[in-house]
Task: structure prediction
Amino acid sequence: MLRATAPCWFPPGYPEAKKVAEEAALEAPEFPLPSHQPAQSFGLRVPQMHSQASAFVDIQAEPQNRGPAVPPAWPKMVTEACYFPAQRGSACCLPGAPRLSERPSGVRIAAPRKRKTIAHSSSPCLVTGYTDAKRTRVASSSQRSSGSKVGRQPGKTRNRSGMACKTTTTISSKRIVRRPSLPSLKKPIILRRSGCQVPTVIRRGYLQLFTEECLKFCASKQEAEEKALNEEKVAYDCSPNKNRYLNVVLNTLKRLKGLTPSSMPGLSRAALYGRLQEFLLTQDQLKENGYPSPHPERPGGAVLFTGQGKGPGDSSCRVCCRCGTEYLVSSSGRCVRDQLCYYHWGRVRSSQVAGGRVSQYTCCAAAPGSVGCQVAKQHVRDGRKESLDGFVETFKKELSRDAYPGIYALDCEMCYTTHGLELTRVTVVDADMRVVYDTFVKPDNEIVDYNTRFSGVTEADVAKTSITLPQVQAILLSFFSAQTILIGHSLESDLLALKLIHSTVVDTAVLFPHYLGFPYKRSLRNLAADYLEQIIQDSQDGHNSSEDANACLQLVMWKVRQRAQIQPRQRSASPSALACP
Result:
């Protein structure tokens, strides 16, 4: 918007009035005026009004996209002098200046029925002020962005009028994609079977850890990679789910790192055998926990010093070991009547609640005495403590000077037959946590329930084996001697299924007692979770006998390390117990 200044009014005849009128006449545009109205009256130029329409000033901004940007053209203003009467003869000339807030690109003066466009040249003072302001803004913005810009921009060129030229050249450094200079590693091929829940990413991670450990003792890199791949494949093949796989690979990693019992720092196998002497069960503990002892009068027989399982007076009446119901059996051991067995497979646990304690089954959280949550085709019984014939006893062996009696972990799986629980699988693990014997066993009597939930044995496993219990006893007698230390959890149950008499045992159920004392015992699953930080027996396919045996061996080694920290000085074993230095 343009601000116009009007001259002050002077009385007629005043010298200054004539001067002002002459200057105004020179600068004012020519408008057709009526003849009856003078152009100058009283020494003042007065805008003439037409009868039809008045003259007006139309200011329109030129479009900004008509071509290359040019500096704005400010209109040439007429400098008029303003005189104030209060100065009494002295005049003060004040130049009229336009506002800097707006920059019109063109001014057009339009009259009635005729429009005339007047081009204006830029004012030097306005151009200078605009250029200085823009230079200040550019300098401040360059200071703020100097730290973040990559390239460097040269100063802008300026024209003769002092305006910055819009055409500039920006020189920026070329961006280069930086790539890591790591050697490309060839990933090994990992085969994946259908139905397994172990992600390939996890398998590759543990395979890398296995390779790093194998490189420490293998002769070549290729040998280490092959060994690591084989170890991972073995762990993957025996793992039906992710949790089982993690447990197996952790145990394998510990073995590769040298944390196995046989390779403990400064502890040989003979020294380990001596350390385990203090954890052996005494004769009183063997009798109290129901371990079989040789019968004094009947060869091949065994005797139990705890209450032997005696049924009712009638020999054809049995008591179901799952639901507690009495049922009748024939001479062959089969049920006389077909009855469904409703039972709870979990144990009764007591927990603290608001207002007291409550007892519930761990399988379904039902109260004791409620109807079972599982259904079986018929009732079953234990029967191991009733049939105490066909037992064999380990005997002493003469060992060479460079041998020792041996340390083994043992675990067995059983199923229900017409005569009670019988052996269906046996696994033996040595001190290096390697399986030295593992086989399925065919029971002597007809199988009623495979007990797959706990044994992990299926009908197909038993159907493809022909090994019987006497053959297993012969093989175990070749492994064991009377001085061999057997490790297990509630090992009396396994020895009853094997019909084996052995007294040199370490029982983890006794080594880690229940806080309520005997006859309560902690489960192997809880012990492994508390002391080994491992999850075992978590598969829907049932227990794994090799996994249970390894867990028992690791629990005993944990106890040995804890005792070594309490008693720094190593206890020496007796000469009769140690066969080698």
Summary: The first helix runs from residue 15 to 27. Residues 200-257 form one domain.
